[in-house]
Amino acid sequence: MKFRFSLNRQIIYLIIGFGLLVLASLNFAGWFFLQSFKSELVQELKNQILNTGRMGSRLISGNDLENIFPGMERSPTILYYQQLLYDIKVNNDLENIVLIDITGRILVDFRINYAIGDTLFTFPLQPALLRQASVGETPEPALSKFSDQYFMSAYIPILNDFDETVAILVVDAPLKFFTTLRNFEVGTIYLGISGVVILIVFSLIILTATRRLFRVEDRMKEQERLAHLGQMAATVAHEIRNPLSIMKGTAEVLRKKYQQLSDEMLTYIPDEIDRLNRLVNDFLQFARQRPLHIEKVDIQDILAEFKHQLRDPRLHLETKTGLHKVIGDRDAIRQILLNLVQNALDAIGERDRVEINVENLSEKNDWLTLTVQDNGPGISEQDMEKIFDPFYSQKSSGSGLGLTISKQLAEQMGGNITIESRVGQGTLVKVKLKKA
Ligand SMILES: Nc1ncnc2c1ncn2[C@@H]1O[C@H](COP(=O)(O)OP(=O)(O)O)[C@@H](O)[C@H]1O
Ligand SMILES: [Mg+2]
Description:
This protein is an alpha+beta fold and 436 residues long. It is 52% helix and 16% strand.
């Protein structure tokens, strides 16, 4: 199946970013709206208690309140004002309304059994407001807190004929309003927090989802590309192989015919044809992944055989006993080993060395590792990203398929290949295979 659908990533990230921004600003706007709503409510209440207080103060004569002492609770004047305060309280749904003197002691309140000189019984006295009111000003009521409870009081001065403050009318806003306000505030906070949390979770989900989508897209593109390359390679390889074998046969005939010339040139042709053949074989191997014949394999056998085949004095093979058998395909393991050792031998100089080592990773572990280590020039970090790519080679005659095929085969057997390398120090290739 072809993967035609292509996503423009920048645009998608831009859209996601924009969407999140819109969500964030909506959240913020909502919060801001609730905040301004709250301060408007408080302002409303301020006006209400101030107005109520001012209206009430007009019904009270300062002169009546000038000489009031404890014990006068039942005097007609006091009884009159007591009734007045009670009416104002009930009509305006106030928490409390009370007349105090400039030291903050109660002169008149609406309770039947109160005593002149009592202290305030609802909310604490607000000294700053008291001070202002006692010099004849009407202070601005402020939202205050008293043991986790909001309250607000208006302090209205009551003057005598000489414009002296003789009493102060204290008007307390209804408590139930503040309970509502408090709930409202808690609600706003929860709303804000949950908005932010939802936003974060939402963006994380969207980002991971898109990232995963992009990764899938990459993989599909890569697979498509490889499938293409594979088909192409297979076709080309087939077309090349036939003429190659004819050329090799012909070269052979020519060499026999002109044996007496003993010209070196006559051996060049079959040698180069062999090299081409190897290249073509690599292509084919890469193009058509053959199904593996999976069985229990003794790596020790393969290594012994391999040492016999490849006689290079730079090659050092460490054989161990007690190795686990692995699950894999004998030919595939052989091929991987050959590719890796060939790379190592290509990379090193005459006096360097390549070491092959096999060991059980650990008794508890499911893996056996085969390592090929050289002390050659190493691989730079930039190259490291590309060396497993098909057709990536730094050699003039390389196919660039050795590592690609090796990785494919290792993965087909349920294992993997990793490479560690330091420039100037050498390269260590690890093949992990499953223990049988
Ligand atoms: N042991 C090694 N030391 C240094 N470079 C290496 C080693 N093994 C692989 N490489 C680099 O990786 C490239 C790709 O290797 P490979 O896939 O086997 O293709 P090829 O051997 O045909 O070039 C090589 O061309 C080489 O540059
Ligand atoms: Mg190679």
